[in-house]
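Sequence in, structure out.
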Amino acid sequence: MGAYKYLQTMYNKKQSDSVKFLLRLRAWEYRQQSGLVRLSKPSRIEKARRLGYKAKPGFVVYRIRIRRGSRKKPLRKGINAGKPRNAGIHVTNARSLQVIAEGRLGRACGALRVLNSYWVNQDSKYKWYEVIMVDPTHIAIQSDAHIKWITTAKHNHRELRGLTSAGRKSRGLHKSGIGSSK
């Protein structure tokens, strides 16, 4: 078993003592930092490489913090007038928190393109995701045949149109058959 496969199996068992301790330490560290942090390298290298990351110029990794939970309905004085069927206070998001994180980062770093993202940590209040971004103007990206596709204009803000892996999953495109929208 190679090193990346070992790391992958380790992260799949999040209830083990070693991973639980590591995640708890990292959650404390992440809480001390701002909501948007540029990283020198991914904290989960095996996951980042599976999602397309390469340690070469033009690839950037950001960690973003998202508040957990659904949206609260804005009510005047907290009172919902009307029938009981409309009395729900919390509105469930149509998009996952991961898609929302990609969209926020895509707007914050408008010149970069979102390639993919993955979960890194969570506590009772926040979820943290690392987002792999690509600089389409970088010569190393434009000359690489495997990633060159992202430099075309039709991939502008692909995260806001649900074209990333998490966005396609929220749109129901990861499954086929009954209940899918393909």
